[in-house]
Amino acid sequence: MKYIDEFRDGDGARHIAANIAAEVRPDVAYNFMEFCGGHTHAISRYGIADMLPANVRMIHGPGCPVCVLPIGRVDLAIRLALEQGVMLCTYGDTMRVPASDGLSLIKAKARGADIRMVYSAADALKLAEQNPDREVVFFAIGFETTTPPTALVIRDAAARAVKNFSVLCCHVLTPSAITHILESAEVRQLGTVPIDGFIGPAHVSIIIGSQPYEHFAEEYRKPVVITGFEPLDVMQGILMLVRQVNAGRSVVENEFSRVVTRDGNLAAQNLVSQVFELRESFEWRGLGEVPYSALKIRPAFAEWDAERKFDLHYASVPDHKQCECGAILRGVKRPQDCKLFGTVCTPESPMGSCMVSNEGACAAHYSYGRFRDIAVVAA
Amino acid sequence: MCLAIPARVVELLPALRAVVDLAGVRKEVSIDLVDDAQVGDYVIIHVGYAIGKIDPEEAERTLALFAELAQAEEEGQP
Fold first, then answer.
1. Residue A305 parent element (H or E)
2. ipTM here
3. How high does pLDDT run on average in chain A?
4. Domains delineated in chain A
5. Which residues in A lie closer than 8 A to residue B6 (C-beta atoms)?
6. Domain region containing B58
7. Mean pLDDT across the stretch A38-61?
8. Chain B: residue nearest A232 by CA?
9. What's the total number of domains in chain B?
């Protein structure tokens, strides 16, 4: 497939790996955080970690919307479906996220709740129009990539006066999460999470452009390379970060220039700001309350805001005591450092959110990396 | 979650919709967010919406970048 196959070429990957090996300095430790779950998945799936020199370490970041969705938000959706009897539409990714009382959306569905998996936000609006006697709520999660489609359906619902449709908005923002990590005690004071640069988001940056990251490069002196999700993109992004560290530079570079521009998709940005405004604070799993890190629906579209329509109030719910998702999402721990990993917590029956989405650090390590550190013994 | 794939626009439909082709699989998507998309363009599809357009020249430039030699080798250093 064009624009996919040539970016997955094995020989090309080996060539870039040789460049990285030739250019890293043996006395320097290179710690790079890949913010996005898409990169985490690519690094595990294509064995990129094995192609890097030992002093180049990739730290998984919190850029997986399913992973950072706190229990309390899933609880709101489950209660809407179970107690208010709404038809709840959601992307498939959220179905198995563990919530309170041993429930998840998929278990609530088994109990009789009307929960529908949809491919697109537009499908949820279509269901509302086909079922005018039912209240239909779209459980909207995701980063900047996924927000414009939600904005479009809210705009369309308002234009077509679809009164039985509303959106439970859980959209979050990438730059505020990066700021939160850079300001965290582990990075700033304790130094337990050394970060020498960022692999910047691929598809998020199509929407927001490369400009929003310039602040991190300047203010925090951290190089950022916006990188595509294909394996050769990731390898090249790492090489570009190594070069910046070697040269003592910290600027924003764009490896994914075939789709990402400095300004991003302005039409999408305008639409998002017409429909949404900043939330003062939003709880992220792992990061806690992060100021101005999420969006809510503007008062002009209040009729389509499920939080207003059903008078919903968010309540924070602590994670499972032994679950290390929080520390893993902050880059403090690795999946294999968690007691539950691969024993009680597996992709089939996840205890924590990082095991749910295939972009989660735990699911990626479980699927592709868990036997890496185990020596092969002849039978 | 941010999963998105490049696909070729094969037909423009009314109301900012289009048919795209991905290795023989055809699907109708919205081009509301990329309203200047033309037949033959490659667009990035996410949850049924085109969110960006691929610049073929930039793609070639990136592929050429992959093939470059290491900086040390280029500069003739050990």
1. none
2. 0.91
3. 94
4. 29-64+177-254 (3.40.50.11750), 67-174+265-309 (3.40.50.11740), 325-369 (no CATH)
5. 1-4
6. 5-74
7. 94
8. B66
9. 1
